Amino acid sequence: MSSFNNAGKLTPEDFDKYIFPYLGASNKNVLVGPKHGVDAAVVDLGDKLMVVAEDPTYGLPSLGFKKFGWAIVHICCSDVACLAAKPELMTICLLLPPETQKSVLQDVMTTMNTECKKLGVSLIGGHTGVIPGITFPLNGGCTVFGFTTKDKLIVPSGARVGDKVIVTKGAAVEAASILALQYPSGLEKKFGTDLVKNAQEMFYDMSVVKDAMVTREINGVSAMHDATEGGVLGGIYEVGNASNVGMKIYKDQIILTDEASKICDFFEIDPYYSISEGTLVITVSENAAEDVLKALKKEKINASIVGECVDKNQGMQLFETDRQIGTFRFPETDPFWAAYFKAIEYSQEIK
Predict the structure, then answer these.
(1) Domain range spanning residue 186?
(2) How many structural domains comprise the chain?
(3) In a structure prediction context, what are the per-residue pLDDT tens digits for the chain, which is 351 residues long?
(4) By Cβ atoms counted within 10 A, which residue in 22, 59, 179, 315 is the most buried?
(5) Domain finish residue from 148, 183, 215
(6) Of 55, 16, 28, 21, which Cα lies nearest the Cα of 241?
(7) Are 239 and 325 contained in the same domain?
């Protein structure tokens, strides 16, 4: 049997073969279970729905421990928010390598406490312990619970033909910020300190909780999805695939910051397929699209209309201006990973 050689999520094919057939007993109260492009489950509790999502969060030495704590809360809450449920409860499994300083755990927990309070989330349990075999603190699994009602639920598989596609913040938010944090010296020599500092600050854009809480209030929104691995185009593909619709996307309408463009170019990766935690993909009826943009702008969240949902038979079309330049799909491997390992090598060479 072959091994898993690529970093990141399993491919859809591996998911279908090794995960989907082995889901235990069926339960009639599970309204949304495991599905490509859907990052949270929905359980019917009778008078309300419970939305549940789980995520690991990898720790990176370049982030520091406070950013690690921030990322745990916001990345894990984002998947629940994408289904229009307000995150309310959280459990966490924190794994620490041997000899970890107690001040490290203090930094992680105090930051998580602060961010949970900002979002109105209660940390209700989990597990924390020291475990051999890891070299940096790891969120082995954070579970977030949110609640909504059937009439308010929005699922990533709800996009409809004719809907407009809106993207917040733009491409490669996470890729650009992490690479700037990992290899600041080399990037500063190439692009200057201001660009690198701005890219590093993009780290705090790696959350769609606010984006989703604003968007869910607009009538006509049919789907929301966080563009994580696979980037903006990967996220749009997942929404289309899950919703059984095609997509007509204008690449030049997707926001691409100067920081993301230059850093991705430096590492020779495609920003439109690079991990972009914090970028929300939204589908909405044509007559409500401007209302979504206005609501986001009021909260100082940049967004743009990048295309529309079309009949499935038209496939996933990619345009620039009025010229079709090809098609797109979910990448087998997010290009960020190769760039990240390259950034580590560059950093070690400098040392």
Answers:
(1) 164-350
(2) 2
(3) 678 767 777 778 888 999 999 999 999 999 999 888 788 999 999 999 999 999 998 777 778 899 999 999 999 999 999 999 999 999 999 999 999 999 999 999 999 999 999 999 999 999 999 999 988 899 999 999 999 999 999 999 999 999 999 999 999 999 999 999 999 999 999 999 999 999 999 999 999 999 999 999 999 999 999 999 999 999 999 999 999 999 999 999 999 999 999 999 999 999 999 999 999 999 999 999 999 999 999 999 999 999 999 999 999 999 998 899 999 999 988 999 999 989 888 777 655
(4) 179
(5) 148
(6) 16
(7) yes
Report the alpha-carbon distance of residue 93 to residue 116 in Å, rounded. Answer: 16
CA 193 – CA 122 distance, rounded (Å): 38
190 token code pair = 């190439």
Q: Tell me if 243 sits within 8 A of 299, measured CB to CB.
A: no
What is the rounded CA–CA span in Å between residue 348 and residue 90?
37
Q: Tokens in use for 112?
A: 């998580």
The residue assigned the tokens 């190439």 is 190
CA–CA separation, 6 and 264 (whole Å): 20
**In what side-by-side order are the strands of the sheet with 323-327?**
221-226, 280-284, 164-168, 303-310, 246-250, 316-320, 323-327
Return the ∠ at Cα 131 (arms to 133 and 34), rounded to 5°. 85
CA–CA dist 266, 47 (Å, integer): 52
CA-CA distance, 136 to 101, in Å (whole number)? 11
